[in-house]
Amino acid sequence: MTFNIPVVPANMQTIIDEKLAIWLAQNGYFYIMHRFDEDDRLDFVKRMHSLGLFASISVGVKPKEYQLIDDLAAQNLVPEYITIDIAHGHAQTVIDMLKYIKQKLSGVFLIAGNVGTPEGVRELENAGADATKVGIGPGKACITKIKTGFGTGGWQLAAVRLCAKAASKPIIADGGIRTNGDIAKSVRFGASMCMIGSLFAGHDETPGEIIEEDGKKYKVYFGSASQYQKGEYKNVEGKKLLLPYKGHIVDTLREMHEDLQSSISYAGGKTLAALRKVDYVIVKNSIFNGDRY
Length: 293
Description:
By secondary structure, the protein is an alpha/beta fold. A seven-stranded parallel sheet has the order 1-7-6-5-4-3-2. A three-stranded antiparallel sheet has the order 8-9-10, with no helix packed on it. The chain has helices at residues 18-26, 41-50, 63-74, 92-104, 118-127, 144-148, 156-166, 180-188, 227-230, 249-266, and strands spanning 7-9, 56-59, 81-85, 109-115, 131-134, 171-174, 193-196, 210-213, 216-222, 240-244. The chain has one domain (7-276): TIM Barrel, CATH 3.20.20.70. The termini are far apart. Residues 2-278 form the IMP dehydrogenase/GMP reductase domain.
């Protein structure tokens, strides 16, 4: 399948729900449903197919996830896309799940992650991944690097570049996208798609209530490994943020589309492929540092 832009909202509970998934699928955008409503995933696939839409779900690697795959196979329900979604995807548990899904569900497009090294990409591809998510903790609501010392936070673009060089299949750059220009940069260094959380948070269509503080509107945004997601303070690697209310998501998607068109124009081309051919420079400080005065 092809989609309007190389962007997918993060499969997080504060970003995507069924209503938004339906809208995205109906309007030519990719989506990945989160895995936190575990018991509803099989019925979600049924509902999407009944609407004539593609189904894209997330799974983990715990034993009960194998039962979901068995149940899907038993009912001949094959989602078009399945994402194996764990924080450290370069693991034997992910490799085992990849092989199991490939054996049970013929024809499904399998995305696996997350990884941050070329070795991780190669191993997941060899195990059956059709695409790999690259990014360990670079997200706005993620504190993995601070809590553990591990991750691609601060050098996410370099990780995408290294992983894309090793990849023979598509790479999804997951996290670290703070501006629309970062999408073009990710494509330049090899990403086929970008997964984005914070830029999509705060819209009418994203889950959660609008909160008013001091006359300003906000929406809650929290990481998948935060205590708010887990329900307890244990192995916490995410935080909660209040992000400004942004209105309708269609306006943000339109702006992303327009900005990408401008990026392609600056690259001297007519398609995204033109971005892959441009030269680049490495700067020590953020471009925003010059806007402080």
